[in-house]
Amino acid sequence: MTDDRITTISNETVQIVAEIEVKDPSSLNDEDAAEDDDNDDDSDNNNDDDNNNDEGEGEGVEESPSSSIEENSTMKGTPNGIDANEIREGVTALVGGGGRGAGGGGGESVSVLQRRRQDSAIKNVKLSIDAKNFRVARRFSTALNSKDGSLDEGEGGGGATKRTGERMHAATALNEDVAIVDRLLNRVSQYVVVCWAILVIFSYWIVPPGSIRRYSGMEWNAALVNLLLLTTTVLVKYMPLLWDIKLKDMSAPSPASDGRRTGTMMVGRTQISGILYGGLVTQFIAVMTVVIMVAFPVPVMIDPILGSKVNLIRWCEWTPLAGYMTLMTECIDAPEYSGGKLTQAWRKKFEVSGLMSLSTICGLVFPFCTNLYVWVVVMTFSFVTYSAIIVRYFEKRKLFRLWVWSGGGSVDEIELYERARMSLTLHGVCCSIWTLITVQYFVTSCGHLIVPKTWTMLHDPAAMMIGECTMDLISKCLYMSLIVEAHQAAFDEVRRANRRLSELRNAMNVVWENSSDCIAISVQKVSGSTSSMVSPSFFRSALVAGKEEMIQNITAIVLEHSSLAVQSHQSINEPFTNSSRMKESEVPNVGIKIVRKDAFAGVDIHYSGNDDDPFECVGSENEVMTCHVASITEILAQAWQIKEDEIMFDYETAAEDESIRTKFEVKVTRLEENAIVMVVRNVSEKYRRFEAEKKFVFESTARLKDAQANRFTRHEVKNGLLAAIEICGNVREQLSEPVMSHESLLSNLENMTELDRTLHDILDIILAETMARDVIQGMYVPRMECIDMNDILGKTNGFGLNNSRFSLVCSPSPMPIIVSDKGLFKCIYGNVIRNAIKYGKLGGKIATEAKYDEATGEFELKVINLPGRGHDKLVMMGKRASELVFSHGTRLHNDTHANKQSYSAGDGAWIIRNCANILGGKVEIMFEPDRTVFLFNAPMKIHRPSFDVDKFHLPPSVWGIAIDDSKIQRKLLERFFHHAGVPATHQIVLGQNSDEISGFVNFVLDLVKSHPRSFFFLIVDENLEMDDGDASSHKIISGSECIKQIRTALDPEQEMRMLALVRSANDSPQDLALYRSRAHGYMQKVPLRGISVRETVSRFWTERFPPKDGGNQGGDNVENSITRKASVENIRDLTLISPVELLLEVEDIDSFCVQNFDNYPHYHSELWEKIIRLKGDLKTVNVDEKFTPTINLIETIGRETELSDFITIWLRIRSDIVSFVSQN
Which residues cross the membrane (predicted)? Predict the structure, then answer.
C-alpha cells in the first residue's frame, strides 16, 4: 500500500512541480534555460488530453501580482523542456526510489512503478524535445554531411544561432518524424498485402492448369520445416511484445474508484510502431506463403532456358516484400537537418525500394522468357536494379563513418545514432541476404547444367525448394531480430518515454534542490500524524543561521507532525497572518530530520524513521528554524483543511515587531484522501514591487491630470479672469471720482457689458472643454436639435477680432434650419477658426463657405485662410501633412508668434475629427501654395414641420391629464392643453400637494375606467416632489414609474386609448431608455410656443394612433422644434410661461435660502429640488438660447455643493433671470 501511495502521489505531483521556477539557472545549460519557454507551447499542444488540469490551473482565483505560479506553469529552467507528464514521471522516480529503499517489498514497488511509468508514457506519445535535443539531431545530420564529422556546434551551425521560430518547430521534429514513419509504414503495409494477394491470384490465373500441383516428398518437407521454424520464431519474438503493448496494461483498482477498475484495455490506445507493424506484416506474408505451399496446390513452372523449377508463389512473396523491407530499412534511418527542420529524403527512399521490387519481379518473368536474348535482357535488368541497394549501402556506410561516436550524449542523440546504426545494419543484412538469394538461385537453377550427376543434391528436383526455404528462413529471422531491435531502440513509444524519464530523474534533482519555490509532499498516517518532505529552499536562511556544514549537500527536510500539532489549528477560519499563533509549547511536537544527498534515494515520506535515524525535536536553540517550522506547520494546517482537489491561498508571516513581513503564495493539490502536494512561493518582493509600481502609476496619472488642468486654467481661464479683474479695477476708479460725469456713466456701462461678455466666454470655454473631454473618452452621445446656421456662422465677435477679417458665404442664403448636434458643430467651427487665426497669416482674412445640398442631404463647410509661417514646408509634405494634422498629440508648428505666449497640446484637430466622426462626417485639410483650406462634410437633414398640422385636431372626447410639482409648470401645462385643443372641461392638472401626487395613479385608473369611450393624454413630470413643509415627509416619486403602474393595471383595450408621455429636463441616454421602457414617449422640457404645440402633439398622437387613411404620422424625430419664423418673434407671444412667473419662482428660492441659511446642510436637498424645477422652467422659455449659459450654471450645482459655492452660482443665476425679466 505504501508503494502504491507513493506512486499515486508522484504521478499527481506534476501539476504542482511543473510550476517551479529554478532559482539558480547557472546550474543548467544556459542555452537550454533560455530556450525552455519556446518549447513549452509545443509540449502543451502535444499533450492536450493529459494536461487539461494544468490548463485550468488557477481558475477561480483572484488575479493578483502573485499569480506567477500560473505564469510559470511550464517549469522555467528545466533542462530538457520536458512537459508536465515527464515531470510527473520524474517525481515518480524521485519519490518511488525512496519507497523501494525503505519500505521493503522492492520487487512489487518496481513492478508498480514500471506500470505507472508506461501508462503515463503511453498517454504522451509525442513527448516534447527541446532546442538542445533538436540541436543534437541537427549536429548529427550535419556531421554525416561534413568532412571531418566534428560535433562542434560552431562548425555545424550551432543551435544558438537559429531563430526562435525554428527552434520551436524543431522541438517536435523528431517526434513528428517518428509519427510520419509510423503512418507511412502502416499505410504501405496495407498496399503490400493487397499486392501480394493480387500476385498470388495472378500466378494461379496465368499458368496452364497442368502446372498447378501439390508439393510432395522433399519439397513438401522443406516447406513444412520452413513453416514450423518461421512460425515458432515469430511467436517467440513478437508475442512478448504484443503482450506488453496490447494486453498487460489493464489498470488496477484505485482507492478513489471504490475498488472498480477505472481503466480500459490498452487496445486502440497504445499504437504499435510502424516498424513493428511492418515486421508483423512481413512475417505474416511469409508464413501465409508457406501455408499455401504446404496445404494447397501451387503454380510451378519450368524455366525454358535453365530447365529448373520456378516456384511462382515464392516470387509472389518476395516481390512486394523486397521493396517493403528496403523501405523500412530506409525509414529507420536518422532524419536530415534541412531548412530549419528535420526531414527525410523520401524520394530516394522510394526509388531504392521500387528498384528492389522491380529487380525481384523478374523472377516471375523468367519462366515466360522462351527466347534466350529476352531472358538475358530481363536478367540484366534485374541485376542493374538490384545494384541500387548495394550503392545505397556504401553511400550510407561512408556517411556514417564520418561521425565519431563517443558513447555519451543525450537520449535523443543516442536515439538518432541508433537509428542510423540500425538502418545501416539492416541495409547490410538486406544486401547480404539478397546476394545470397541470388547466389542460391544460380547454384540451384544452373548447377545441374555444370556439375556432374554425382552431385546428386544439385540434380535433385527439390534443390530449388530447399534453397529457397533455407534463404527465406534465414532472411526472415535475421530481419525480424533487427526490426525488433530497431523498434525497441527508436520507435517503441514506451521505451522512448522511459529513456526520457530516466534522463529526467537527474533533472528533477536539480529542480528540487535549486528551485526558489518550496516543494512539499505531505502524507497523513492512520494515527493522524503527518509526514512531510520539504525542499531545502524554505529553510535555507535557517540552515545558514544554524551553521550547518556543507549546506549545499542538504537535499530535503522531513517533518513529522503529531496529530495535535495540525488539528489544533484546523479551527482557525480567518486568514493566517502571523506565525506567532503557534505557541512555544506546540513547537516541540514537530520532529525534523535533515536529509543529505547521499541518503536522499532512501527517503520514504511514509516512513517515520527508526532508532538508527530518529527525528530531532525543534527547540529554541535556533530561533530562525523554529519560526520557519512554525510557519510551514501553519501552512500545512490550512492545507489539510482544504477539501478541494486544487486551491491556492496566501500566507503571511511577520516578526514580533511587525517590521518585516513575508508573504507566501501557496498552491495545494490533493492527490488522494491522505496525501497533498504544495508549492510555496515567496512573493514578498513581487508584492512590494507591484505596490510601488501601482503607486507610481497613480501618482504619475494624478500629476498628468493636474498638469492638464493647470494648463487649461492658466491658458483659458486665467486670461479671462485677468481681463475681468482689470475691468473691475476700471469701474472702481471711476466710482471713486467725486462727481460722476455722463462719460463716466457710459464708461461704466461699457465696462459692465464687457465684464458680462468676458465671464460668459469663460463659462462657454469651460463647458466646451468638458464636452471635448467626453468626446475624447468616447462617452459623448449626440443630441440632435434644430440649428440656425446663420446665427452660429455669423458670430465671429467671440474671437475678439475685427469682423472685417471674416467673410461668410452661404448657399442657399439664408441657410435653412438644420437638424444636428449644436455643441459638436460649434466645437468643430470654433477650433477651425482659432487654428486659422493662430497659424494663418497674421492679420490675414478668413473666409467661411457653407453649402447645403438638399438633393444629397450633405452639408459642406469650408474655412479658408492665408498661409502663415512654415506653410511652404507643409506644402512640400503633401498628403502626409494632412494626415499628421489630425493625429493625436501632433503639432506641425513648433513656434508661435513672437508676441503671443500660448500652449497647444496638438489635440485640437484630433478632437475635430472625433466630433466629425460622431456626426457621421469627415474632415480634411489641404495646404495649397497660396492658402489653407479646411473642409468638413457631414450628412444633415433640414427641419421640416408637418404639413398636416393645421388639419390636425384631437378627438373631442380626449382628456388631458398632467401632473407637476412646479406651480409655473402647472400653468404651462394648462396653456399647453389649451393650444393642443383639449377642451377646458377635460383638462386636469395635478401636483399642488402631496395628496394629489400620491393618489395620481388611482385617480387616473378610476377616470379611465369611468369613461370607456374616451381617449386620455397624460403628461407626467419625472421627478415629483412630495413636501408639505415637514422635512421628514420629503419624498421623490418617479413619474415614469407611475405611468408603468397605470399601464400595467389597465387591460389592453383600456391601455390602447391612452397616450402617456414623460416630461423631464434630464435627457441622458440611460434616462431616455428608462422613460421609453415605461411610457409611450418622452417630451423634453424645451421652449414651448403656442404655434408649435399642435405640431408637437400631432407627432406623438399620430405615432400612437396612426390615421386610418395612412396620412401623415408626425414630423421629424426632433424634440426641440423651432422654425425660421419663430426665431425672430417676441418671447411674450411664443412662450407659455410669463417672465413674471419666473421672477416669482426666483423670489421663492431667495426666501427659502434666507429662512434656512443657518441650517443649509439639512435643507440643501429640498433647495436642490427647487433649483431643478427652475431649470425645467428656464428650458421651457429658452427661445433663442438666451438662457443656455444660465441652464449650464444650474447643471454645475449638485447635492454636495458647498454653501459658499452655491451662493456664488445662485447670485449669477438670479442676475441673469432678473436681467431677462427687466428686458421683456
Answer: 188-207, 219-239, 275-296, 372-394, 424-443
